[in-house]
Task: inverse folding
């Protein structure tokens, strides 16, 4: 039995940049930085950074920041805006609370925000194909003064205004197949539309290359956060090729029965899966193979817990 790691798996440049900004602030043991919302959709990486001193604060807790500043004894609190970005009113709120803002918005997301704002100012109906409650779409809608419309389901198309200039764009991490299909349905309903491909190239390339990796393995472990849309999408794409594909975030979730009769285990991950976590999976699996815990029929029963 052998274990192969998808060479394209792992954290994207935008999230890596936000983590680097946090780590620069934490260097030297400083403990006055918060991130607004999970910095990454991967609970293991969030835990690692939390141990290093990066505390996560959520929308409903922002008003407690002045109190936290007092308790911390620091002269200034800093809040990191994660790669997904935020609507302008959130920046204004943070500024009003007197915190220093560290803007970790991914440049690809900033481009989408700028595009949406520009088209809205030109009088277009702006439509974002993506998830209603995703922080990135919430941020982009905010950059259009709340006017852009999000289309996630077919039924959402009914809320669009027919016969007006319309621009259709994508949440950066959406599947190209989903975007193309939805954009055509919107065109059929609304009339002439301008379609802007705002999908992240990193994510598009990952999806394109995934099938060739998935075909090489008898069992695929798709490593990533359970809340990560990108991991959920990649796991579905792997499952369509190989039903023996499992979406997990920790080696503790592995069931050894999955590997019965398997010769090749593939390990892959999404744009929010850190490389250290992928390596942890590979190292653990290789140790199990070396010890005969997997790879022999007699050893493949029960799970790791
Ligand atoms: S997936 Fe792409 S758009 Fe999203 S944060 Fe990463 S690099 Fe930026």
Result:
């Amino acid at each position: 039995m052998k274990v192969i790691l998808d060479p394209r798996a792992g954290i994207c440049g935008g999230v890596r940049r936000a983590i680097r900004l946090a780590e620069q602030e934490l260097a030297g043991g400083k403990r006055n930085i918060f991130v607004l919302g999970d910095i990454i959709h991967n609970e293991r990486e969030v835990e690692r950074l939390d141990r290093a001193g990066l505390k996560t604060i959520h929308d409903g807790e922002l008003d407690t920041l002045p109190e936290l500043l007092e308790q911390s004894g620091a002269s200034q609190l800093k809040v990191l805006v994660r790669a997904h970005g935020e609507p302008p009113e959130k920046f204004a709120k943070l500024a009003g609370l007197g915190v220093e803002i560290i803007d970790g918005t991914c440049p690809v997301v900033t481009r989408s925000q700028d595009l949406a704002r520009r088209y809205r100012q030109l009088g277009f109906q702006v439509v974002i194909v993506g998830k209603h409650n995703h922080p990135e779409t919430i941020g982009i809608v905010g950059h259009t003064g709340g006017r852009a419309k999000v289309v996630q389901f077919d039924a959402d198309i009914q809320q669009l205004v027919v016969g007006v200039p319309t621009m259709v764009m994508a949440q950066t991490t959406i599947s190209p197949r989903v975007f193309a299909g939805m954009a055509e349905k919107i065109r059929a309903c609304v009339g002439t539309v301008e379609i802007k491909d705002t999908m992240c190239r990193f994510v598009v390339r990952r999806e394109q290359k995934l099938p060739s990796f998935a075909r090489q393995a008898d069992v695929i472990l798709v490593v990533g956060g359970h809340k990560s849309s990108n991991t959920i999408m990649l796991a579905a794409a792997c499952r369509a090729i190989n039903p023996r594909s499992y979406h997990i975030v920790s080696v503790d979730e592995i069931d050894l029965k999955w590997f019965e009769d398997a010769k090749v285990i593939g390990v892959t991950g999404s744009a929010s899966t850190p490389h250290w976590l992928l390596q942890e999976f590979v190292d653990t699996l290789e140790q199990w193979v070396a010890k005969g815990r997997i790879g022999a029929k007699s050893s493949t029963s029960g799970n790791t817990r």
